[in-house]
Amino acid sequence: MRPLLLASASPIRLQLLRNAGLEVTAQPARIDEDAIRQGLQADAASPRDIADALAEMKARKLAEKNIDALVLGCDQILAFKGRVFGKPETPDEARSQLSEFRGQTHQLISALVLYDGGKPIWRHMSEAKLTMRPLSDSYLDDYISRNWQSLRESVGGYKLEEEGIRLFFTIEGDYFSILGLPILPLLGYLGTRGFIPT
């Protein structure tokens, strides 16, 4: 089995890969995501292109220093009414985002790019649609107050694997993609290539 180098600081991505029995090490790629995202948006890049570009930049950054490694870059973008949202930086920003989303449907776009030998060998995109309940102001305030330390690490300001599931009315799409790692296509590719036993 080839060990995998995950270009991400996401605990949930690391946990999903390890739970699947993969030998994986996480090492965050040091790129200026905000500046790159803003530059791509200024060039009218689509949310899918932004997610793909960020995932590739993360993988490339680590692959340049770990030429013999199998490196996985990941990114997730929240798209809503033509705008792109990231992780909220303050509780007020989280409240503003969640207030916009309530009663509406937004998209989560997840991108994976796999490098081997310093070159990209595989990429995957997935999209999920999430419709939020028409939440009250008081519930939103309480939710953010109770969960701020956790939700600040998540695009959109919620985690479905935690209390964030209560914010939603319907969800269409792969659960693992919503968590930021569409793992089934990844496992399929790794198995087909012989990187993991099948």
Fold blueprint:
Layout: E1 4-7, H1 11-19, E2 24-26, H2 33-42, H3 47-65, E3 70-80, E4 83-85, H4 91-101, E5 105-116, E6 119-132, H5 137-151, E7 168-172, H6 175-178, H7 183-192
Parallel strand pairs: 1-2, 1-3
Antiparallel strand pairs: 3-4, 3-5, 5-6, 6-7
Helix pairs in contact: 2-3, 4-5
User: Structural class given helices, strands, pairing?
Assistant: alpha/beta
Count every helix, treating DSSP H or I runs of 4 or more residues as helices.
Answer: 7
E-strand count: 7
How big a fraction of the residues is strand?
Answer: 25-35%
Report the radius of gyration as a whole number of Å: 17 Å
Straight-line distance between termini:
10 Å
Counted up, domains total: 1
Specify the overall morphology: globular
Which whole number gives the mean pLDDT? 95
Biggest sheet features: 7 strands, mixed
Low-confidence stretches: none
Q: Any idea of the CATH class?
A: Alpha Beta
CATH architectural category: Alpha-Beta Complex
Per the CATH scheme, the topology name is Maf protein
The percentage helix is 25-40%
What is the string of helix and strand elements?
EHEHHEEHEEHEHH
Folded structure, characterized:
- The protein has 7 helices and 7 strands; from the N terminus they run E-H-E-H-H-E-E-H-E-E-H-E-H-H.
- It is of the alpha/beta class.
- The protein has one domain: Maf protein (Alpha-Beta Complex).
- Strands 1, 2, 3, 4, 5, 6 and 7 form a 7-stranded mixed β-sheet that branches.
- A hairpin with a 2-residue loop joins strand 5 and strand 6.
- The radius of gyration is 17 Å and the shape is globular.
- The model has no long low-confidence stretch (mean pLDDT 95).
